[in-house]
Amino acid sequence: MGLTKSLLFLVFCCQRYILLLGYCSMEGEGQQISLLDGVEDRFGGIVVNLMEVESMTVDDFDAKLDASLKAWKDQGKKGIWIKLPRELSSLVDTAIKKGFTYHHAENEYVMLTSWLPQPPSTLPCNASHRIGIGAFVLNKNGEMLVVQENSGYFREKNVWKVPTGTIKEGESIWAGAVREVKEETDIDAEFVEVLAFMESHQAVWQRKSDIFFVCELEASTFEIKKQDSEIYAAKWMLVEEYVNQPFHNKEGNEMFKLIANICLKKSRDKYTGFVLTKDSPKKSLYCRVDHANLLNETADQASTSLSD
Question: Using DSSP, how many helices (H) and how many strands (E) does the chain show?
């Protein structure tokens, strides 16, 4: 009798355990997984910014991303952007396996994208160009500022060149030219105008294009103190001497010769470039000197002056 009661009690406990498992399973199936917090952009896409998320496990991200992608597809969303901070780099592989690709990266984050409709994707590519400057700086004696570099293409070529550099993020072309001259030679100079610009393709990492702006600057100080880390030598040189360097006449250096001749013409007041017409913290506008007053003209006045 005691054995029978024990068996019955055991069966009862098993039944309760099975019922409990079923209840928990139904609870799990009915539990709704929250979506990733995204903001709709102007082009029918979603931007997910995880920069402020303190932590997220791979499993949690996996589940949320699955649920989010299904919801976004149902809603007809197009391009999906996910901004992942360095601290959540462990989540990158999960996103890649679900069809995301790298768009760009900065020191603090990586941006991943996915195009939900049928291809082709209309998402914009990442930065396609690098912006560089060359500074044609004249002093009161009509001499130009030239340098020789410790490294780079011109190293040990015995070629004198204008100060050059790359524009920083959020920096205007004119400001970058002034900064580079100051950094390389300690010369203070004021921006005058953009003389010309040149495009070079597959010039950066054998993939990106380079746009190089040649800017005229007017020196306000004249004592050179070269930047030892980058500059081997620096001096003032007659423009004609700069132009007549043998390097400019070698085959394949036609662009360098053309730029040198533009500088020579400008030094003789026989060339007109683009002046800074309007400048603000976020936008700068350059135009020809003879059209610099267009900002203050009416539509009729502007059309008349442009046709002159």
Answer: 7, 13
